[in-house]
From TrEMBL:
Sample GO molecular function, one term: sequence-specific DNA binding
Keyword Protein biosynthesis: no
UniProt domain HTH araC/xylS-type: residue ranges: 8-106
UniProtKB keywords: DNA-binding, Transcription, Transcription regulation
Cited SMART domains: AraC_E_bind, HTH_ARAC
UniProt xrefs under Pfam families: Cass2 (PF14526), HTH_18 (PF12833)
Protein name: AraC family transcriptional regulator
InterPro entries: AraC_E-bd (IPR010499), Cass2 (IPR029441), Homeodomain-like_sf (IPR009057), HTH_AraC (IPR018060), HTH_AraC-typ_CS (IPR018062), MarA-like (IPR050959), Reg_factor_effector_dom_sf (IPR011256), Tscrpt_reg_AraC-type_HTH (IPR020449)
């Protein structure tokens, strides 16, 4: 079964259990991949987390039920997983821009998120430059933070994290510690937390030897890596490259993604330049 077919099978499972308290482990099992890898793949292809997708779908169905039945609002709130009418009303207003009672009266517009179907066209129109690298175990040193997933996250996320470490001089310190094969300051995602809808994000550099005591180290095992060239301003070029990797390169090559954190290597002195050149390191098997 291909990656896309496996993901669609997991999405169908989500849809069939929208009213159940299913876990990311149960969903990922349908795709036959790890929870972290499933969550990462899902976000790359859809731009939302699994939890956010389920919330949007539940509130879409709740809005349909409010508009087409006379069932009590409190009963609909409980049905779609909200313990109090207040929590339901807050979430409902955030998605639809109106309250449940206004939806019942037909006041305002509703925002519908339809059932997801993943379709991949293997065009290969845009060439991808990459190389295969065999690497022994190595370590990175840096700092990490729990960052929220999804475009509607309310807490400070990855861009704010980068802004802080650039402003407080930590990036400059990390550059001085860079002393091994992988160049550039690295952005690394690890450890998806389903309950908090967050990931552990590292800003680090590859470093051989013991690092300063106020920094944390992360060990990478011996593995095979695909190193993709990413050209363009990082905020737009990196997401586009990730989508091309998952929608074109992976389905058309014989590799599987390994259960190892992926790395974005910001090798350009100014990754925001329109002609910047950076890298994505993806472990495969």
């Amino acid at each position: 079964m291909s990656l896309i077919e496996s993901l669609q099978k997991a999405i169908d499972y989500i849809e069939n259990h929208l009213l159940d308290n299913v876990t990311i482990e149960e969903i990922a099992r349908r795709a036959n991949i790890s929870p972290f890898h499933f969550q990462r793949t899902f976000m790359i292809l859809t731009d939302v987390s699994v939890g956010e997708y389920m919330r949007r779908r539940r509130l879409t169905l709740a809005a349909q039920e409010l508009s087409s039945t006379d069932r009590k609002i409190i009963d609909i709130a409980y049905k779609y997983g909200y313990e109090t009418p207040e929590a339901f009303s807050k979430a409902f207003r955030k998605q639809h821009g109106i309250s449940p009672s206004e939806a019942r009266k037909g006041i305002g517009k509703l925002q519908s998120y339809n059932r997801l179907t993943i379709q991949v066209k293997l065009k290969g129109a845009e060439p991808m430059n990459y190389r295969i690298v065999e690497r022994d175990a190595f370590q990175v040193v840096g700092i990490k933070r729990e960052c929220p997933c999804g475009e509607e996250a309310e807490d400070a996320g990855i861009p704010e994290f980068w802004g802080e470490v650039n402003a407080n001089g930590i990036v400059d310190r990390l550059v001085q510690l860079m002393n091994s094969e992988m160049k550039g300051v690295l952005g690394i995602t690890d450890n998806y937390d389903e309950e908090n809808n967050s990931i552990e994000y590292w800003i680090a550099v590859e470093h051989s030897g013991e690092g300063p005591g106020d920094l944390t180290s992360l060990e990478f095992p011996k593995s095979k890596w695909v190193v993709f060239e990413v050209h363009g301003s990082a905020p737009t070029a990196m997401p586009e490259a990730w989508k091309q990797i998952y929608t074109e390169w992976i389905p058309s090559n014989g590799y599987e993604v390994a259960e190892i954190p992926a790395i974005e290597a910001y090798t350009d002195p100014d990754p925001y330049r329109t002609d910047a050149s950076n890298q994505i390191w993806l472990a495969v098997k």
